């Protein structure tokens, strides 16, 4: 039976579900970034207590990567992927009705498990299903889902809160979650998984142990990538309000603008990495970010901040746009559901104090220099690590087709 003209190819369902799920995951995470003031007032706590709920969500992500990644390598990509979407969407809705700070903190930690579980499965399903020639572009497209989720969260702040209140922000992802589950159900199971599947969970961990050197290298790399991403994003709305006295509405518009830059960067650098190599492309993207710091942190006008934040996020997410393909190509075949996700989320765990460190540095050297010093060091370290690391551009996942 041939595919009907105009209908989607099977791999397109897999890629679409991975992208949409990552958009939704990012949206549910960044909701809190825009609600720091309102949440602090509602729960009668200081803002730094709400910042710690962000850290808690980040810190729990490796648990999700371990649980759901193991399931994906043992039982296939599709069912664990549908399960994790239902899980984190349900937890997000419960956050909207949390009666007090402690329950909200607990729910955000539980949400982090779902967020951590999703990326590895989504990336492996998308990269294993996509044609090799399109891997770089689709890697960037998937990672662009993260800033797109950030952008949609900023847009929802302007549209949802004035009419439905802040609690409704935790409910608007319900329909996209159902669509993601539907697209995943329509996706074919990964042929790479079928070819390389192992007989038990213990066999998965034995394979993992055999590749400990590359595992540790990538954990170090992803911990710094996490510092780069969250260090330039999570506190930036509060920085703009505090340091530049911008209103919440203007900050939301600015966030939408710089996330357009992030999307453009992920698509551009992800695509060109297919030709110019993963490591070289990341280093170029990092160079763009470090050059943008004067405008990003010290811009004296709204136009300067707009330009600086756009270029910063184009570089940051440009580097991240290469990551799904790069980690998938460096992962052992038999544990591609577990390995990249666990590496990614352990990096997030090690990088999770970044926001709290920047916030503490603010009290010592000022907000502008806190962001500049921290991110400048991170970018330089990342450039060195990528320059000295391995690459397997164009690795095939199923035979030699």
Any overview of this molecule?
The chain is globular. The model has no long low-confidence stretch (mean pLDDT 87). It contains 20 helices and no strands. The chain has helices spanning 10-34, 36-43, 47-59, 61-75, 78-95, 101-129, 135-159, 161-164, 174-186, 191-196, 201-210, 212-233, 236-244, 248-276, 278-298, 302-321, 323-330, 339-351, 354-365, 367-388. It has one domain (12-388): Up-down Bundle (Growth Hormone, Chain: A). The relative contact order is 0.15. By secondary structure, it is mainly α. Helix 4 packs antiparallel against helix 5 and helix 15 runs antiparallel to helix 16.
CATH level-3 fold name? Growth Hormone, Chain: A
* Cα-atom radius of gyration: 20 Å
**Percent helix among the residues?**
over 70%
Q: What share of residues are in beta strands?
A: under 5%
Please give the CATH class: Mainly Alpha
**What multimeric state do the chains show?**
single chain
Level-2 CATH architecture:
Up-down Bundle
Number of contiguous helices = 20
H and E string:
HHHHHHHHHHHHHHHHHHHH
Average residue-wise pLDDT: 87
Task: Briefly note the structural class of the backbone.
Answer: mainly alpha
CATH superfamily: MFS general substrate transporter like domains
| Poorly predicted runs | none
User: What is the first-to-last residue Cα distance?
Assistant: 22 Å
How many discrete domains?
1
Which sheet architecture does the biggest sheet show? Answer: none
């Amino acid at each position: 039976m041939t595919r009907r003209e105009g209908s989607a190819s099977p791999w397109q369902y897999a890629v679409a579900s991975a992208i949409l799920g990552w958009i939704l995951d990012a949206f549910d995470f960044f909701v809190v970034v825009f609600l720091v003031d309102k949440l602090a007032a509602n729960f009668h706590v200081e803002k730094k207590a709400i910042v710690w709920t962000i850290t808690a969500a980040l810190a729990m992500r490796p648990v999700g990567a371990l649980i759901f990644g193991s399931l994906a390598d043992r039982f296939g990509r599709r069912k664990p992927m549908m399960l994790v979407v239902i899980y984190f969407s349900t937890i997000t809705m419960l956050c909207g009705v949390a009666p007090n700070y402690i329950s909200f903190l607990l729910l955000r930690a539980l949400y982090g498990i779902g967020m951590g579980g999703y990326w590895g499965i989504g990336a492996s399903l998308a990269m294993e299903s996509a044609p090799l020639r399109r891997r770089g572009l689709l890697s960037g497209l998937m990672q662009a889902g993260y800033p797109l989720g950030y952008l949609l969260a900023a847009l929802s702040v302007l549209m949802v809160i004035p009419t439905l209140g802040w609690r409704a922000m935790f409910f608007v992802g319900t329909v996209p979650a159902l669509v993601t589950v539907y697209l995943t159900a329509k996706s074919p199971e990964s042929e790479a998984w079928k070819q390389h599947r192992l007989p038990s969970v213990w066999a998965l961990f034995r394979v993992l142990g055999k590749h400990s050197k590359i595992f540790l290298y990538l954990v170090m790399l992803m911990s710094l990538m996490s510092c780069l991403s969250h260090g330039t994003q999570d506190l930036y709305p509060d920085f703009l309000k505090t340091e530049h006295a911008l209103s919440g509405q203007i900050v939301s518009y600015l966030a939408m603008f710089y996330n357009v830059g992030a999307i453009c960067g992920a698509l551009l650098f992800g695509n060109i990495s297919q030709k110019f190599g993963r490591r070289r492309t990341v280093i170029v993207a990092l160079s763009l970010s470090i050059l943008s710091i004067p405008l990003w942190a010290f811009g004296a006008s709204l136009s300067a901040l707009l330009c600086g934040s756009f270029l910063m996020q184009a570089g940051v997410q440009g580097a991240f746009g290469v990551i799904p393909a790069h980690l998938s190509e460096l992962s052992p075949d038999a544990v591609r559901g577990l390995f990249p996700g666990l590496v990614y989320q352990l990096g997030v765990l090690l990088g999770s104090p970044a926001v709290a460190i920047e916030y503490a540095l603010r009290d010592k050297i000022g907000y502008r220099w806190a962001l500049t010093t921290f991110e400048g060091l991170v970018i330089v370290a990342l450039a060195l690590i990528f320059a000295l690391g391995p690459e397997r551009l164009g690795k095939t996942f199923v035979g030699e087709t």
